[in-house]
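Can you give me the bound-state structure? Components:
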Amino acid sequence: MRMLLVAALLLSALTLDQQHGREIYRRGKFAGSAVGTATIGAEGVPLPSSSFACATCHGIWGEGSRESGIEPPSLVWKRLMSPAVSPVTSRRRTAYTPETLRRAITAGVDPSGAHLHPGMPRYSMPDERLTELLAYLERLGDDDDTDPGVTATSIRVGAALPLSGPLEPAGRSIRETLEQLFADASRNGGIYGRRIELVVEDSGGTAAGLLEATRRLVAGDRVFALVSSFETAGDMDAGRLVETAEIPLIGPVALSPHDKNLPNAYVFYLLPSLYDQARAVVDFIAAKEAPRHPRLAVIYAGTALDQDVVDGLRSQAARDGLEIVSEQSDVPSAVTTVLARQANYLVFAGDGAGLARVGRELDQAGNGPVLVGFISTAQSGVGQLPPSVAARALFAAPALPPDTRQASAFFSLLQAGHSPRTYLGLRTSAFAAGSVLLQALRSSGSRPNRDSLVGTLERLQHFETGVTAPLTFGPNRRVGSAGAVVLALDPASHDFVVVSGWIAPKN
Amino acid sequence: MKAWMPLLLLLTALAAAEQPRIPDTIVQDQDGHQLLFYSDLVKGHTVAINFIFTSCTTICPVLTANFRKVQKDLGENAGGVRLISISVDPTTDTPDRLKRFAAQYQAGPGWSLVTGNKTEIDTLLGALGVAVQNKLDHTPTVLIGNDVSGYWQRVSGLASPAVILRTVQDAAASQPESPSAAAAVKYFPNAELLTQDGAKVHFYDDLLKGKTVLINFMFTSCAGVCSPMTANLARVQKHLGERLGRDIVIISITVDPVADTPSVLKAYADKFGAKPGWYFLTGSNANVDGVLSKLGGYVEDKNQHSSVLIVGNVARGGWRKILAIGDAEAIANVALDLAR
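Here's the bound-state model for the whole set.
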């Protein structure tokens, strides 16, 4: 204990110079841009230093590495400042001094004048930056060289949630769930002895508010990672901000996340896109009706989310050999047109009010097609459907409704916190995001750093949260689940009943 | 006539020798274009191929920086040389990832970074002799070659860019030996035979390889066409001058190896004033017959042997058949033409 106290007095958090030096060491960058150039060989082409960051070879804590027969040495300060045997020439080199270390970085020679390994670039950067890099090298890998938001006793994570405005209850239920989950984990030993602290900034539930709240969390590097931020549809700015800041964001609440060609490396979504949900619905209908080939129709409102549904339907209908006999934008005559085309299933892509209106029109027409809606966008309209339509309607959901057996961890947490069973969808989302974060932190070792957190998340396979489909990420995969579960309404209780297992769309 | 069938086959085999040794694996480049690896990238070109993956930390940045330097030194459009980087982690490396990687190292026109289906890329890597079990252990090899000349070299990817560049330039400058050099190796027998001096020689390796050759069939006790044919070749030898024995050789193979021992052939050769570069060949029955069959000179009855002379450039693959008793100067000119 006494020793620890002494150590704590001797060491201190990194200075600003050293923090700059860390960005140079880890990324080859200063303030987000390449700090200079790196050249391989005396006659080589100068390339951006960001393509040759020190940490990629020498390790994030300066531990060195080994790959394809090359062994970049450890850069721990004490070792540099002592004589050593060169791994290249097997000759002894004398101890480095700050001056000879500068020369090694810029001219590729060791303190004895011998050439360093040909794989070690010669760097060119402003003197000021080189000084910062050396200042950091002196601290590299010591006990206080921790990532932002990490101390010896805690890991601080942030969330941007609506804590004001009409969405305040939603934000509150997410915060409550995360706080309960993290408190529970901290009570049970935490992450390698560190407790998890949650910092929440108010987004007001708007796109601009989300961006500002995220900026406040990111600014000054207060948090190690972000979790469960509440996204507004189609807004990308907050995502771009965390990508630039290189801070992982786990499980943002979003309606239809996509894996783009080159997805945002730092944002990990849990629940499937509406595109994949629509594909799963088509597979469900095709399997249920086989060997018949039911006729599909779709009425869609104008948002990007609705377009995702239409795209998914088209793609999977073509795959499953089903015909879409009518595609109508959501105008007054749409239902009449669909009825004339004698569709067996009418998929509605739009909000709750739209779903209720289409339901009423179908009711007036009598024995029409089965109405299919999406919980993610139209849940509010489900209760307003006329009984004749509701009795036959189907709904796609992005996750299985939590049942008390599979989601026992979730429900016992809810019970222990005396939380009401409201906003269950958001509470389960937050629970899943927090669980993924805790799992990834446990797997990435006793020295948490953002790079290894991202790497650990990328390797997550079939992770069971109990409240979502099993989650899998990958180097190019940032949406953890793809598919849907299909629900119907119990005519007596008006509760949802599950009529399918988890459906992963066929490729 | 029948005896010539094998030669016709031989000529066909040489002409069709552009069989790619490198498979036509379907790959995608950094712009998402679908390409056939051999046909679209290698065929008819000088190429330098390295092996990378975008999440590689230690070795690939160095390999790629070296390629960047080679590209610069080759000049605009890499001087027509194709630089190719094949991902050894095709599951992760999408075209978009390769594009971002290419940008990091300022890869310019003429440099293709390719990925594809994992199974197919693995097959391609196997065909190129760089199959990898674990991507972290992948060897830093650069494969440099000229598809036209058939010149191929392997260089360490960690060699200095100057060494890589020199090898690329050697490959680009290598003579279009033949589209068929490889086929010739496979086609011609390499059986051990004996010269008139009693020296053991391998038919292909020691006599044919890289040379322009004139081959006839004879036997010393022949009462008919052999003497005039050999006398005529003696005149051809004069017209070949000092090229004989250097890049052109005359080969007379006995169809009677039992009687025609080296010493018998030696006496026969001396009688016609054969100079160095003119070989009279005999050997075991099996070996001689094997060579004769392959060249279309094998006959059941030695008196039926052909009086045709086969003239050809082994390296480049041009072949003629002419009567061995034709005009000596014309025969020499055919050989000199082919040797050019």
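A couple of observations. Chain A touches chain B through 28 residues (CB under 8 Å). The CA atoms of residues 240 and 250 of chain A lie 14 Å apart.
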